[in-house]
Amino acid sequence: MNSEMNQPIQSATAEMETPRSAVPVWLVILMVLLLYWGGLYFDQHGGWFSPQVYAPYASVAEVEKFQPPASGGPPPQGRRYYDLICALCHNPDGAGKPGQAPPLVGSEWVLAEGANRLIRIPIVGLNGPIEVKGQQMNLSMAAMGASLSDEDLAAVLTYIRQSWGNKASDVTPEQVKAVRADLANHPQAYMVEELKKLPDKIPSK
Amino acid sequence: MKHGPMIFLAAFFALSLSWFGFVLKPQSQIGRQMPTNTPPAIDIYPQGRPGLARQGAEVYRANGCAACHSQQVRQSGTTCDVALLNPGTNRAALIETLKNEKLDSAEMDWSFTQLPQTILAGVEKEIADSVAKSLKAAGAKAQVIIVPIGPDIARGWGRRQTVAADYLFDNPVMLGSLRAGQDLAGAGSRLSDANWHLLHLYAPRTSVKDSLMPPFRFLFERKKIGTHPSPDALRLPQEFAPPEGFEIVPKSEARALVAYLQSLKIETPLYEAPFTAPQPPPTENAPTNSAATNSPASGANAPATNAPAK
Fold first, then answer.
1. Most buried among A89, A200, B59, B284, using CB within 10 Å?
2. Distance between CA B234 and CA B256 in Å, rounded?
3. Which of residues 26-85 of A touch B (CB under 8 A)?
4. What pLDDT does B305 receive?
5. Spatial contact of A176 and A115, defined as CB atoms under 8 Å apart
6. Interchain pair A49, B76: CB under 8 A
7. pLDDT tens, residue order, chain A (205 aa)
8. CB pairs below 8 Å between A and B: how many?
9. Cα–Cα distance, B196 to B188 (Å, whole number)
């Protein structure tokens, strides 16, 4: 190297050249080791770019560990929306109001084994004479539940099927979704005769 | 220039790599977050701020509050407490279990009358789970309480760390980077009194003796008292009071700013930032409850009740 430097400059116009030399092996090894360490660190602390992982949590599994346990029972928004919307006519205790709405407690319409008919009533409404628990009524209900999401409507229906001594199966958001899709070309309110023709359970496709 | 194309390519590569890392990837990661409800909560979170608070955000921005106040709570870890909710009927079994778990410390209240009673604090999730399980086996009812920890949380600035979802309705997000003043992410929870805020904005040293905060007197109006004193007038201590015959009345900007400060709350557990919220007392009337929580604006009108004494 020294000998090269000491040589006289050949011509003034010639550009200076730095001599090329190979990258030292130890540097390459150090880079590889650092890269490996970085990869390990990312794997242990990075959460793999999940939008739900923030430090101090390191992975989705760790966030999952601290989630509150499922409470069981009907989802809490069922009661919220029942009290907001349904209770005005059906009463907060589900007993109904004479001249306004039939009772839900012990009603064969609410407690039916499948919820096919029940789900349809809040989505498009129900008109005309109906018999509930042996009583004749002639009322009309608007499409009170049409604006609720599938999850919320399912929660409300589950709430009325499992409260005040009622005991029936859950209504799932999937069932509500299927029925809502089926109702796309049935915008008008149901008559009882029409509802009775439908099967009790949701027909599987 | 020698190696011109090479330098261009290197610069292009470096800039495009940072664009991918700082713009594109975060956008695909959290760019489409939606407000959602995290069970067991019923309400979706976050909800947009009410109108007056939204105007207040502009006042906050215009006055450069973010230069000295951050809005981000950090968290360094998460611990668990075990709370006894119900001692059950079999006291002997419960006491036996607590002794087996080596929880019979001197401070333990064996009467179990102050419920919920914290049995164990600041432990790892696995230990808390196993203690809760053995308490359950003894016929008692116990709950594992998730407690985020960290310096910010110890200062009372929030119950958990802030995450991207907390800022969904903020535009721009005023995170701030300097803490000459307090962090304000949870200001509405710890300082809920509108009068306190108004006094503090007019003269910070009325409430904090050595406050560094500049007074924001231009958000207030000095008025000559007419036939009657204004019901909105500030009740200032003698040292800061205007001369006899005058009163200090907040302008609409001050009211909006206070409404905004009251709306800053980090109280909802999220999936990505879990903690156990204290159980609210059961409310029978859901509609009135939600109406009350949606209008911090009503708090900003509180000075109306604060008429000067004379």
1. B59
2. 16
3. 49, 51-57, 63, 65-68, 70-71, 75-77, 79-80, 83-84
4. 39
5. no
6. no
7. 556 666 666 666 667 788 888 889 999 999 999 999 999 999 888 888 888 899 889 888 899 999 887 766 667 788 888 888 888 888 888 888 877 788 888 888 888 887 888 888 888 888 888 888 877 888 888 888 888 888 888 888 888 888 888 888 888 888 888 888 888 887 778 877 777 777 777 776 5
8. 54
9. 12
The string of DSSP codes covering chain A is -HHHHHSPPS-TTSPP-PPP-PPPHHHHHHHHHHHHHHHHHHHHHSGGG-TT--TT--SHHHHHHTSPPP--SS-THHHHHIIIIIHHHH-TTS--BTTTB---TT-TTTS-SS-HHHHHHHHH-EEEEEEETTEEEEEEE--TTTTS-HHHHHHHHHHHHHSTT-------HHHHHHHHHHGGG--SPEEHHHHHHS-SSPPP-
pLDDT of res. B291: 39
Which tokens hold the place of B46?
């976050």
Model confidence, pTM: 0.71
Residue B302 token pair: 């509180």
The residue among A81, A103, A75 whose CA lies nearest residue A172 is: A75
What percent of chain B has pLDDT above 70?
88
A199 at the B interface (CB within 8 A)?
Answer: no
Q: What is the pLDDT of residues B78-135, one digit of tens each?
A: 999 988 888 888 888 888 888 877 777 767 777 777 778 888 888 898 998 888 888 8
Q: How many C-beta atoms lie closer than 10 Å to residue A4's C-beta? A: 8
- ipTM strictly over 0.85? no
Cα A150 to Cα A163: distance, rounded to the nearest angstrom: 20
- Residue A12 pLDDT: 61
> Chain B residues with CB inside 8 Å of A68's CB?
39-40, 146, 269, 274, 276
Q: Is the dihedral of CA A56, A58, A63, A65 positive or negative?
A: negative
> Which tens digits make up the pLDDT trace of B38-58?
776 777 888 889 999 999 999
∠ CA B299-B205-B53, rounded to 5°: 25
Nearest Cβ partner for B273 among A54, A68, A80? A54
Retrieve residue B133's tokens. Answer: 């399980």
Low-confidence ranges of chain B (pLDDT < 70): 40, 106, 279-310
Provide, as residue numbers in chain B, all residues whose Cβ is less than 8 Å from the Cβ of A15.
Answer: 2
Rounded to an integer, what distance in angstroms lies between the CA atom of residue B246 and that of residue B243? Answer: 6
